[in-house]
Amino acid sequence: MQGIKLISMITASAALALSSHVFAETPPQAVKTAGDAAKGQQIATQVCAACHGADGNSMIPANPNLAGQHAEYIIKQLNNFKSQDGKPAERDSAVMSAMVAPLSDEDVRNVSAYYAQQKPKPGVANNKELAELGEKIYRGGNLETNVPACSSCHSPNGAGIPPVYPQLAGQHAEYSAGQLRAFRTEQRANDANKVMHVIATRMSEKEMEAVSEFISGLRK
C-alpha cells in the first residue's frame, strides 16, 4: 500500500513539473523584463513603500515582502492586478488594482527591477512546533493526501525558480497562509494550470499554517 502511495505521489509531482515546464516555455511577459532600478526606486518610494517597505521588507504581516523577489515574477503579479483588453484583472484586489492602474509597462519593469535588487531581511518562525510540521511538508509533502513537496518548485532554501516560482524564504506567515487559502477557493486564480489550486485543496488548514510558519523562518 505504501508503495502504491509513493508511486501516486511521484506521478503527481511529475505531472505538476510537466505542467509548469509547459507554462515556463511561454511566459506571459516573455517580451521584456529588464528595468531601470534607479527609476524603480522613485516609484517604490511614492507608490509602494507604505505597504511593502521602502526596501521591500514589509512591516505589515498581511502584505508581502518584495525584497529579493524575482523581477519576472513581480512583473507578472503587477500585470495580473491590471484589467487587460477590457477583461477583469486576473488577481482581485481593489487596493492593488488602484495602485498599478497608472503604472506603464516601463514603470512596472522598473519597480520590479528595484525590488529584485533589494536585500531581504531574515525572518523568524515564532512557533517551533508548527514550523517543524511545516518543514516536513515543505521538504517531503504528504503521501497520504498527495501533496507534493513545496521544495520541488520553490527550491529547498525557498529561493524559488524564476520566472514562474517565487522566492518564499522569509515571507510573512500571515501572507503565505492567506495566499494558500485564496488559491484553494480560487479567489486567486493566476497560477499556471491551476497547480496551486490543486495543491491547496489537498492541504488542511493546519498544514497551510505550518508550511507558512516554516517559510517565514527559511533562509536562502
From TrEMBL:
Coiled coil (residue ranges): none
Entry PTM: Binds 2 heme c groups covalently per subunit.
First and last residue of the signal peptide: 1-24
Binding positions (heme c 2): 150, 153-154, 196
Location, primary (coarse class): periplasm
UniProt keyword terms in alphabetical order: Electron transport, Heme, Iron, Metal-binding, Periplasm, Signal, Transport
Residue span(s) of domain Cytochrome c: 35-119, 129-219
Binding site for heme c 1: 48, 51-52, 96
GO CC entries: periplasmic space
GO molecular function, one term: iron ion binding
Record-linked Pfam families: Cytochrom_C (PF00034)
Cellular localisation: Periplasm
InterPro entries according to UniProt: Cyt_c-like_dom, Cyt_c-like_dom_sf, Cyt_C_IC, Cytochrome_c4-like, Cytochrome_c_Oxidase_Subunit
Keyword Hydrolase: no
The protein's name in its UniProt record: Cytochrome c553
Source organism phylogeny: Bacteria, Pseudomonadati, Pseudomonadota, Betaproteobacteria, Nitrosomonadales
